[in-house]
């Protein structure tokens, strides 16, 4: 995927007259009045105070990996490229404190050097730490939750420029909301993550049929620390991945196998296949059948973050919903039936992951064990109703949309879906009554 840290602008500039900002997928854009790149919390605070004096809204952008317009603004765009410092590594306390613009890739390198690791991760690491946390980025885990659930404290600049620190014991109400705050409460300037001694994972990747995966779903998710799979529409084929902690000697993929599987096949060849499918839709089912058989069984052991993450360079748009875990196989069978009775040509696989219940107010796994089901379309592919009809299935099963991925839900729906939704909006009223950090997306999902 993209290696930029803040979406893209063309050309790059700061100050007044900022160019159009676009996200990684190219489906969202904005023309801010001005862009700023503060190099310290003090400079960030001054930029927010200046925006307030000018009556301008403020939004921070990370890597631009959200498919929604959550970071779009016509006011002041905060780019965190210079907020990348390492503030503290506390081995005894099991924490690391970093500034908000640090990319996850660099955080992982820092932790590896220090003999530490995050407990769980998503499947890419090009996002900034604050962007990933603030939109609810997650991986898959039987008992380990999202990045936001691993946050132990944070520093945030509020609407009046005040710098606040919060944790379970300091400003606990602010901490409860800001851990996964959608950028609605302020601009996060630093985060403290809980970390643990470095560990390694053994990955076992194996092709499996759709009926077998869904029939064994409870077994596979309960017996493995981290289980996920991809189903290829128009086929019965799935690709499964089981990651478990291991004391075995490191046995990473050889450089050639890594290049062949994770770069050449998964990116170069896949990009070409998607382009062909976009131009000639009728060949997509055939491509899907080939793709479902292209990934062979393999086992390897490596440093945890190298197993959790993979390079993803083929661009797409995505919708992902979190449903109660007990509904996962029902939803998947309904989704498969939906694809089979329509004439859509879906080139991208459906991704399925799990997470335990957590206590974050706006976490998609808040108060319930969760299964995540994500659908994708290759960039430039016209959606002929695929996302719309999938969303109907998800909402019929109490689905919660990922905050950074495409959906049409509004505050009325979401208020009924989240036990602490009213707590969050009340906190927002308290810390940002003038909606300094508001935009059209937040007005839709949180209310005016």
Describe this structure in words.
- The strands form five sheets. The protein has an eight-stranded antiparallel sheet with strand order 18-15-17-16-20-21-19-22, sandwiched between helices.
- The protein is of the alpha+beta class and 448 residues long.
- α7 runs antiparallel to α8.
Topology:
Elements lengths: L7 E2 L5 E2 L4 E2 L6 E2 L3 E3 L4 H13 L4 E3 L15 E3 L7 E5 L4 E5 L4 H11 L1 E2 L11 H6 L16 E7 L5 E4 L5 H7 L8 E8 L1 E2 L2 E10 H6 L1 H7 L2 E6 L5 E9 L9 H25 L4 H11 L3 E6 H5 L7 E9 L3 H13 L9 E6 L14 E9 L7 H11 L3 E2 L9 H7 L3 H11 L8 H7 L2
Parallel strand pairs: 5-7, 6-7
Antiparallel strand pairs: 1-3, 2-5, 3-4, 8-9, 9-13, 10-14, 11-12, 11-13, 15-17, 15-18, 16-17, 16-20, 19-21, 19-22, 20-21
Helix pairs in contact: 7-8, 10-11, 12-14
What's the β-strand tally?
Answer: 22
Q: Summarize model confidence as the mean pLDDT.
A: 92
- Number of distinct helices: 14
Strand content: 15-25%
- Low-pLDDT residue spans: 1-6, 10-15
Q: If you compute it from the alpha carbons, what radius of gyration comes out, rounded to the nearest whole angstrom?
A: 21 Å
Give a short account of the largest sheet: 8 strands, antiparallel
Output the strand order for the largest sheet.
18-15-17-16-20-21-19-22
Distance between the first and last residues' Cα:
34 Å
Secondary-structure class: alpha+beta
Tell the overall outline.
Answer: globular
């Amino acid at each position: 995927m993209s290696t930029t840290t803040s979406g893209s602008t063309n050309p790059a500039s700061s100050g007044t007259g900022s160019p159009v900002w676009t996200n990684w997928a190219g489906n969202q854009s904005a023309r801010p009045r001005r862009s700023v790149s503060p190099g310290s919390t003090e400079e960030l605070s001054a930029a927010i105070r200046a925006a307030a004096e000018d009556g301008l809204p403020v939004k921070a952008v990370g890597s631009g990996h959200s498919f929604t317009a959550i970071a779009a603004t016509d006011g002041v765009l905060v780019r965190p490229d210079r907020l990348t410092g390492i503030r503290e590594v506390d081995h005894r306390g099991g924490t690391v404190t970093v500034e908000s613009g640090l990319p996850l890739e660099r955080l992982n390198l820092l932790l590896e050097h220090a003999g530490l690791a995050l407990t769980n991760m998503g499947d890419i690491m090009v996002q900034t730490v604050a962007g990933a946390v603030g939109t609810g980025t997650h991986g898959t885990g039987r008992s380990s939750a999202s990045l936001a659930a691993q946050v132990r404290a944070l520093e945030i600049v509020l609407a009046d420029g005040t710098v606040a620190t919060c944790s379970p014991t300091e400003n606990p109400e602010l901490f409860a909301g800001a851990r996964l705050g959608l950028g609605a409460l302020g601009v996060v300037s630093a985060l403290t993550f809980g970390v643990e001694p470095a560990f390694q994972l053994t990955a076992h990747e194996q092709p499996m049929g759709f009926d077998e995966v869904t029939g064994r779903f409870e077994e596979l998710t309960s017996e493995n620390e981290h289980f996920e799979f991809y189903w290829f529409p128009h086929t019965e084929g799935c690709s499964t991945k089981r990651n478990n902690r291991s004391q075995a000697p490191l046995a990473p993929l050889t450089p050639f196998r890594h290049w062949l599987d994770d770069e050449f096949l998964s990116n170069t060849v896949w990009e070409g296949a998607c382009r062909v499918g976009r131009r000639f839709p009728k060949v997509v089912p055939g491509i899907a059948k080939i793709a479902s058989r292209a990934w062979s069984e393999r086992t390897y052991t490596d440093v945890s973050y190298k197993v959790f993450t993979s390079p993803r360079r083929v661009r797409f748009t995505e919708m992902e919903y979190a449903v109660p875990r007990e509904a996962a196989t029902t939803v998947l069978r309904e989704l498969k039936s939906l694809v089979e009775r329509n004439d859509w040509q879906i080139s991208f696989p459906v991704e399925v992951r799990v997470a335990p219940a957590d206590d974050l107010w706006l976490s998609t796994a808040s108060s319930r064990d969760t299964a995540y089901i994500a659908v994708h379309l290759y960039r430039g592919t016209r959606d002929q109703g695929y996302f719309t009809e999938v969303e109907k299935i998800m909402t019929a099963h109490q689905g919660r949309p990922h905050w950074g991925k495409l959906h049409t839900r509004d505050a009325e729906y979401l208020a009924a879906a989240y036990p602490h939704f009213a707590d969050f909006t009340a906190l927002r009223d308290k810390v940002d009554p003038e909606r300094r950090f508001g935009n059209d997306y937040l007005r839709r999902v949180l209310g005016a």
